[in-house]
């Protein structure tokens, strides 16, 4: 009996070290901060009477509940329709010593003739890029948080953080989250387009000194995707996929440290 208790205790220790996945798992040591993009006077993208600021807040609330159900400590940058400056959005991640910072956004294009052609889910990590499409998306998302900041100051800010472990870890996090989001969504919606993981100069990712990603959950300018994005079921699939990706990232990181 004593030997059996010793074996059980040993197995319990291994489970804790591995970081159990699912409700009741040992996730309480991890803090997650979720940023719902835009808000207040800044509606973000809009199309068909729908606004990005409303969508990302809805998804953030579901994501908050999903992370909590897994045992994480979770904080959000905004819980209502309010606008926060760049520093305010990332400061909470540092104050709470978050392991991961996630900013939720929705995409859009300006060319009406291509509204129904362009769709997909994309995950970005902080990095300069020559890709014009990534630059355009970043410029649109950066517009509100960088008001009054000249180009030289912007370059200095982003150059200061482009090297080091934060970028490498953010890339790993982006890959795990994107893969799990697509896997989860494809379980119910077979035609969801995988936009992939991409680098981009998103300034919201600069301030948080920890692994940080920005997720574009879909295109409001695409009617099929817009309709899906504003349904509770689709939002839940996105949230579940994101949490699965973060689980995988943190479990892999913990194994690397053993």
Protein described:
The structure is a single chain. The protein has helices spanning 2-18, 52-69, 86-95, 132-145, 151-159, 165-186, 223-229, 232-257; strands at 31-36, 46-47, 50-51, 73-76, 100-107, 121-126, 194-200, 212-219. It is an alpha/beta fold and 258 residues long. Helix 2 (52-69) packs across helix 8.
Instruction: Quote the distance from N terminus to C terminus.
Output: 30 Å
Named CATH architecture: 3-Layer(aba) Sandwich
Oligomer: single chain
Alpha-beta classification? alpha/beta
Number of domains: 1
Average pLDDT taken over every residue: 83
Largest sheet: 6 strands, mixed
Approximate strand percentage: 15-25%
Helix content: 40-55%
Low-confidence stretches: 1-24
Strands of the widest sheet, in order across it, are 4-1-5-8-6-7
How many helical elements? 8
SSE diagram, text form:
Elements lengths: L1 H17 L12 E6 L9 E2 L2 E2 H18 L3 E4 L9 H10 L4 E8 L13 E6 L5 H14 L5 H9 L5 H22 L7 E7 L11 E8 L3 H7 L2 H26 L1
Parallel strand pairs: 1-4, 1-5, 5-8, 6-7
Antiparallel strand pairs: 2-3, 6-8
Helix pairs in contact: 2-8, 6-8
